[in-house]
Amino acid sequence: MAPQTYSRPPQLRVRGVWSLFHPWWLLRSTRKIGPKTRSKMKAAGQTQKPAGTTRTGTLLPRGALEYGKQTGLDVVTVNPALVFGPLLQPTLNTSCQFLVYFLKGGPDQMRNKLWHIVDVRDTADALLLVYEAPEASGRHICAPHFISARDLLDLLKSMYTEYPFMSKESICDMDHPAPMTSDKLKKLGWKARPLKETIADTVEFCKNAGFLEDVEGSPCRFPDVYNKI
């Protein structure tokens, strides 16, 4: 995939590439985002990266650290989990397609994996927090909630009655690894909204956007990429 240059002041311009599973790399200068800028971003519902950051799945840690040394920028990473929440784009992204499949069902199977979930708005807050906090350093796991596929299905059924849902028989057994922790972010003052709130807002958005409507001849499909991780 070709590199993409982000528009930002020349002294902070960096290059990166887009990938599906990635950390967010923040190349942080001494310039901070003030309260007014933060307020405007939240009021506009923006989740764009603050100036001086790049999102990449191919830039190796060693290369990022070396770039930081050469430019005098701190290198800090935010590693988000499966990201839910209202979208700014008009099309369904892969992570929300994951949730839609639970509601609508289809011909595909999935593993009973332990899924870590974070709200896109909380992810934006985490990015701003580590960009501004001088004590932030290294990697920050952004995964406040974890739930198995079967438990997520049960939770959705307890919240909604109007959807057909996927069948429990299409969820295959598997071992669960130990859950990840977001304690490093929480120690900086980061807080995440409840999982039910994130799910409710995501479903409401998908409903209003028409993503939960049936399309004749096009069955709902589970994103295959999630069976490969």
From TrEMBL:
The keyword Cell membrane does not apply. This is NAD-dependent epimerase/dehydratase domain-containing protein. InterPro entries: NAD(P)-bd_dom_sf, NAD(P)_dehydrat-like. Signal peptide: none annotated. GO terms for molecular function: oxidoreductase activity, acting on the CH-OH group of donors, NAD or NADP as acceptor. The lineage of its organism: Eukaryota, Viridiplantae, Streptophyta, Embryophyta, Tracheophyta. PANTHER family: NAD DEPENDENT EPIMERASE/DEHYDRATASE, NAD(P)-BINDING ROSSMANN-FOLD SUPERFAMILY PROTEIN. The keyword Oxidoreductase applies. Keywords: Oxidoreductase. It comes from Panicum virgatum (Blackwell switchgrass). Residues 36-58 are annotated as: Disordered.
